[in-house]
């Protein structure tokens, strides 16, 4: 069985004043051992919520339902809170979009790394945990690691802070790293450094990475497989090279066309017309319908994720044509 | 608050629609509406005190000295909440006391809001030396604990209705002033003000007609919740004997009247205090609702 | 905070304190009527005595000169004589001050001990029954006139249940030699546990009354800042690291939430000073607050003036301390 994490039929909803927001609506996803899976979509498409749901980090009144969420063969849904807590940080680690807000401003970096190690290895000697913290900081490329342990997060530069967060996430050598928009908050020049670091760590620690981003370019460069999300659903998945070369879903096509490419500088960028649907008023049919240039009558009926090849699928009637 | 990038007329209409939306939010909060109704009831009691009071609040009758409430043994119909040490009807004195509390609360808040808003507008819009002087005075006045300042002033000026209003106003204007100054500083950078300036509007015109209407909701919010504090402050001063002069009834002095007779006449102190609590609580709950509806930044 | 920044902040206090002394001086100087006449009242002093008093008080000097004399004297703690007590004003004040400080500290302690845990629990269990009760309670607390609440407590615990004394600082037969002026410390130093407990019983009602409004406010601030902290990314990240709920709430969220709470607590302690006058009057507490109220009625203006100045200075210093605490607690500002 070649899956590390398997998500089946995940639904996450938030009741609000204006109605029920279906942030994640029936997602199936697999993460394979050692791979880098790119999850692409606009903000609000449910990428981050999907993985917060997996880890049980959705706050009330948000509600998570799923047929199954299996990690290394265990169903996470049936675990007790202490059991799932033991998985967080140790087996599945997370980095967040902006290290400035994700790191606690009131604690030193040392405290924040050491507490993670101690949470998963109770009884570890203070000195040993500290040594591990220094090692992690070195590993992610923080110069003068031993001295920087005593620093507070705001005393680091943006790129260094992001590295610190990666160091904390990887302190317990997780099997899966969920990197939520790891570069959005960074300068362009530092972005690739951080991505290189994550790549490097993936290979060295032999872990899988889920790279959540809105930038299809990053995914095209770095991910083995990609899942494109739109309005709480996966609309297309497959090996990145194939999806980029021959996108099936009109949304994926739109994304590719609205993306600047070095190879085709002379081609005009084409934005996707229209806006993302109101998450409280989602239709049963294809959610891209109002913006789709190929829409036909049947698109108003529910559209499932249709397999195109063994590896590819798309939530679109065009998938039939592609097959 | 208002739209940043819209042109002048658009900003106006948006402001209006937000205001009516806020009103709807407020009305949807049942607690706040109930509290507002209670406040209104107190106002009506104050206005129609002579019609509502069952007895003459000033008429002493030593035969009724410390007479218990009507439902207790020795009580009498018509003297529902009992009588004080001079045989005056507690309920009637409370009803007249409502006038003092509400009048002082409204007068102080109104006066302080007008003064504070004017100075805050000037400080925030003109900046420079005007701002410096006003800010300094605010700093100094904020250096006094509120009640101490008022008590000190009352000690020097002597008791009396007018003096209380003055004593509380001397410091009270600082709060609206600070709020208005901060809001004005933010507002003067907004496009609708820039636009008015570009059209050649005078400084007065801009302050009064452009900025003031747009910063009004935090001012109202501050004013309402300060009202609660002022009423407690007045009651406290009157309790110490530094408030309105006897025989005028104020809730605070009514509580003080009963203090010497706690052992045998608990009702003299208890009921007036309950009235203070009820009114202040109602104002606080209503202003909380107002705050939530009008100014999310101030809420919680 | 660097020593330089600290010095700068201290220097900024000077104009404020100066302004405060101007106002305190003006309160007295602008009082309508002849202060000597008011102070002596109906006493049978003759003209010569009146003139000599006027000279002693410097009332024959021009206003500006009088102000500088007042300022100079105030800086050395000389506020003139209290006619009522026939002793220097400062002596009388210093004698009463410990009682007020002690009551304020105990009230503050009670307020913090009640408010902070309650605020944290209310935030963590948001919208639970306890949260609702705490929110309603805090609304009641801020709306409660302190003097009336004190009277209710007296009615209930002293008059009806006879559990606690009605007023005073210590019971008959429990008096001990005052060394520090703090009765809780002095009784312990004298080795009189029974007297210590008696003093504690006397302190309970006034301290609870004084602390009520503060704890109501503090609870609300704690709850708000805790809710704010709990919604931050760093809390989600801490949970994603696999930390226990206790550690996430009790360390990650609380440490950040305490920054505003401590600041408000320090400022509110200053506000307790005003409440003191009223609460000390209600409970017959022999502190500075009651002294001032008595002084007002005996027209002992030099004492009122001195007390207002001392209160205001303390208040300013407490606010300064709050500022300082905020910087110390917040590593981001420490640079």
Q: Main beta sheet of chain B: strand number and arrangement?
A: none
Supply the CATH class of chain B.
Mainly Alpha
Helix content of chain B: over 70%
Total strand segments of chain B = 0
Alpha carbon gap, first and last residue of chain A: 26 Å
Helix count of chain B, per DSSP? 13
Number of domains of chain B: 1
What features would you describe in this structure?
- The complex is a heterotrimer of chains A (323), B (300) and C (335).
- Chain A is α/β, with parallel strands linked by helices.
- Chain A has one domain (5-91, 174-322): Rossmann fold.
- Chain A is 33% helix and 22% strand.
- Chain A has 12 helices and 13 strands.
- Chain A has helices spanning 47-54, 81-87, 99-102, 109-120, 126-139, 145-148, 158-170, 188-205, 216-222, 240-245, 250-257, 318-322, and strands spanning 5-16, 19-31, 36-40, 63-65, 68-71, 74-75, 92-95, 176-180, 208-213, 225-230, 233-239, 306-307, 313-314.
- In chain A, strand 8 (176-180), helix 8 (188-205) and strand 9 form a beta-alpha-beta unit.
- In chain A, helix 4 crosses helix 5 and helix 5 packs across helix 7.
- The mean pLDDT of chain A is 88.
- Chain B is an all-alpha fold and 300 residues long.
- Chain B has one domain: Orthogonal Bundle (MetI-like fold), CATH 1.10.3720.
- The radius of gyration of chain B is 23 Å and the shape is elongated.
- Chain C has a domain at 94-294: MetI-like (MetI-like fold).
- Chain C is 76% helix and 1% strand.
- Chain C has a two-stranded antiparallel sheet.
- In chain C, strand 1 and strand 2 (87-88) form a beta hairpin.
- The longest helix of chain C has 39 residues, at 245-283.
- Chain C is globular and about 85 Å long.
- Classes of the chains: A alpha/beta (323), B mainly alpha (300), C mainly alpha (335).
- Chains in contact: A-C, B-C.
- At the B-C interface, helix 5, helix 6, helix 11, helix 12 and helix 13 of B face helix 1, helix 6, helix 7, helix 11 and helix 12 of C.
């Amino acid at each position: 069985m070649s899956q590390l994490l398997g998500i089946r039929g995940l639904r996450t909803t938030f009741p609000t004043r204006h109605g029920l927001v279906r942030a994640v609506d029936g997602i199936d996803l697999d993460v394979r051992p050692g791979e880098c899976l790119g999850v692409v979509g606009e903000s609000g498409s449910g990428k981050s919520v999907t993985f917060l749901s997996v880890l049980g980090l959705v706050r009330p009144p948000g509600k998570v339902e799923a047929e199954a969420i299996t990690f290394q063969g265990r169903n996470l849904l049936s675990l007790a809170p202490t059991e799932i807590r033991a998985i967080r940080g140790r087996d599945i680690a997370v980095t967040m979009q902006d290290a400035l807000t994700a790191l606690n401003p009131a604690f030193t970096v040392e405290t924040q790394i050491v507490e993670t190690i101690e949470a998963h290895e109770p009884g570890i000697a203070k000195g040993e945990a500290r040594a591990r913290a220094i090692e992690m900081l070195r590993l992610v490329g923080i110069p003068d690691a031993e001295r920087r342990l005593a620093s507070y997060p705001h005393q680091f530069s943006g790129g260094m802070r992001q590295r610190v967060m990666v160091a904390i996430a990887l302190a317990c050598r997780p099997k899966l790293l969920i990197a939520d928009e790891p570069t959005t908050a960074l300068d362009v020049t530092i972005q690739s450094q951080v991505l290189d670091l994550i790549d490097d760590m993936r290979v060295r620690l032999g872990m899988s990475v889920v790279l959540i981003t809105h930038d299809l370019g990053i995914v095209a460069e770095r991910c083995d497989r990609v899942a494109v999300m739109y309005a709480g659903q996966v609309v297309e998945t497959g090996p990145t090279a194939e999806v980029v070369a021959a996108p099936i879903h009109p949304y994926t096509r739109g994304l590719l066309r609205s993306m600047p490419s070095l190879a085709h500088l002379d081609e005009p960028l084409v934005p996707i017309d229209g806006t993302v649907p109101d998450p409280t008023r989602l239709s049963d049919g294809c959610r891209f319908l109002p913006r789709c240039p190929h829409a036909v009558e049947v698109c108003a009926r529910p559209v499932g994720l249709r397999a195109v090849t063994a590896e590819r699928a798309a939530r679109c009637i065009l998938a039939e044509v592609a097959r | 608050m208002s739209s940043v990038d819209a042109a002048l007329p658009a900003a106006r209409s948006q402001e209006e629609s937000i205001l009516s939306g806020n009103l709807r939010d407020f009305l949807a909060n049942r607690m706040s509406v109930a509290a507002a109704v209670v406040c209104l009831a107190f106002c009506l009691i104050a206005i129609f005190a002579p019609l509502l009071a069952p007895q003459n609040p000033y008429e002493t009758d030593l035969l009724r000295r410390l007479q218990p409430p009507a439902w207790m043994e020795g009580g009498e119909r018509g003297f529902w909440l009992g009588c004080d040490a001079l045989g005056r009807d507690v309920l009637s004195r409370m009803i007249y006391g409502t006038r003092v509390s509400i009048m002082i609360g409204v007068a102080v808040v109104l006066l302080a809001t007008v003064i504070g808003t004017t100075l805050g507008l000037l400080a925030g819009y003109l900046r420079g030396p005007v701002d410096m002087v006003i800010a300094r005075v605010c700093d100094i006045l904020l250096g006094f604990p509120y009640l101490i300042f008022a008590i000190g002033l009352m000690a020097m000026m002597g008791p009396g209705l007018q003096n209380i209003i003055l004593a509380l106003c001397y410091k009270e204007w600082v709060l609206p002033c600070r709020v208005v100054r901060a809001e004005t500083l933010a507002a003067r950078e907004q496009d609708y003000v820039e636009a008015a300036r570009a059209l050649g509007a005078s400084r007065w015109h801009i302050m009064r007609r452009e900025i003031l209407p747009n910063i009004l909701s935090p001012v109202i919010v501050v004013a309402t919740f300060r009202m609660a504090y002022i009423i407690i402050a007045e009651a406290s001063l009157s309790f110490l004997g530094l408030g309105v002069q006897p025989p005028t009834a104020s809730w605070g002095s009514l509580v003080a009247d009963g203090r010497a007779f706690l052992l045998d006449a608990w009702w003299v102190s208890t009921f007036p205090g309950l009235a203070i609590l009820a009114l202040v609580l109602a104002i606080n709950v209503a202003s909380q609702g107002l705050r939530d509806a009008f100014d999310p930044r101030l809420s919680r | 905070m660097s020593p330089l920044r600290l010095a700068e902040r201290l220097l900024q206090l000077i104009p404020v304190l100066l302004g405060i002394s101007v106002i305190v001086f003006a309160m007295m100087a602008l009082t309508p009527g002849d202060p000597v006449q008011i102070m002596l009242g109906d006493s049978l002093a003759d003209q010569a005595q009146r003139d000599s008093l006027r000279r002693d008080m410097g009332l024959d000097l021009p206003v500006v000169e009088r102000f500088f004399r007042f300022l100079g004297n105030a800086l050395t703690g000389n506020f003139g004589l209290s006619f009522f007590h026939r002793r220097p004003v400062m002596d009388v004040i210093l004698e009463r001050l410990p009682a007020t400080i002690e009551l304020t500290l105990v009230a503050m302690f009670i307020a913090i001990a009640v408010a902070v845990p309650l605020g944290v629990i209310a935030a963590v269990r948001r919208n639970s029954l306890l949260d609702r009760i705490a929110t309603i309670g805090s609304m009641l607390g801020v709306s409660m006139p302190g003097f009336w609440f004190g009277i209710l407590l007296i009615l209930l615990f002293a008059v009806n249940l006879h559990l606690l004394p009605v007023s005073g600082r210590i019971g008959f037969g429990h008096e001990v030699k005052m060394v520090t002026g703090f009765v809780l410390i002095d009784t312990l130093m004298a080795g009189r546990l029974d007297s210590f407990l008696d003093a504690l019983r006397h302190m309970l009602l006034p301290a609870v009354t004084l602390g009520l409004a503060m704890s109501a406010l503090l609870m609300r601030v704690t709850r708000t800042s805790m809710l704010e902290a709990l919604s931050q990314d760093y809390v989600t990240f801490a949970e994603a690291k696999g930390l226990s709920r206790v550690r996430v709430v009790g360390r990650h969220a609380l440490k950040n939430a305490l920054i505003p709470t401590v600041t408000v607590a320090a400022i509110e302690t200053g506000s307790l000073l005003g409440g003191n006058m009223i609460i000390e009057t209600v409970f017959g507490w022999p502190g500075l607050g009651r002294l001032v109220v008595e002084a007002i009625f005996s027209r002992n203006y030099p004492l009122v003036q001195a007390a207002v100045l001392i209160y205001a200075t303390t208040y300013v210093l407490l606010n300064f301390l709050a500022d300082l605490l905020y910087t110390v607690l917040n590593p981001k500002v420490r640079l």
